[in-house]
Predict the structure of Outer membrane lipoprotein SlyB.
Amino acid sequence: MDNPNQTTQSRRIHPLVATAAGAIIIASLAATAAVTGLFPKASSNGAQNDQTQAAQVTTQPGVVDSAAPASPSAQQQQQAQQAQQSAQAVQQAQQPAPSAPVPSPAQQQQYVQQQQGQAAPQYAQQQPAQPAYCSSCGTVVAISAVRQEGHGTGIGAVGGAVAGGLVGNQFGAGNGRAAMTVLGALGGGFAGNSVEKHIRSTTAYSVRVHMESGKTRYFTYHEAPPFQQGQRVRIENGTLVAS
């Protein structure tokens, strides 16, 4: 009796022959489908099937882990709130800032008047700094020249009497001449005394000073003082000096 393994090996088709036959069959089917128009329909149906499968995959609920709780956790709620707050912050940042209203000319004028009214009292309240009080200081109010006559020594009277007697003796005769001589001597003596006093007279200067204390003081100078009216002075050692 024959061996069955030998019969199976004799009936087996060569692999190359099987591959060539399969390729010919597939090419024939593809050509037939292209000619009859079945190939585009098949491809479109395949695309529709792919889309349907993708939609089904999308709509399928996610796999729930048996270890995770069914309800959303507190962490998920917090993340959702943070996402919502971030979205609101972005929207607020994108919104333009409200512009300040432009004041009308009447409002601007009123504002300027208010500012001026507020600034005026400040200037009124400011007072110049007053100098420190000085009891020995004052201001020259007036300078007056005073002429003082000299005292007669008698020399002028005697000289004048002699000169007057000589002049009077030149007039008249007898008793008249004697009378004229006496009158000339008297007149000459009086005139000589007046001339002597005038020669010996001096000029003094009276300086009136109004002190800061409110008093008025007088100072006498035998020569022209080195001050002018309206000049500030002070008292040092009983005399006036320029301040």
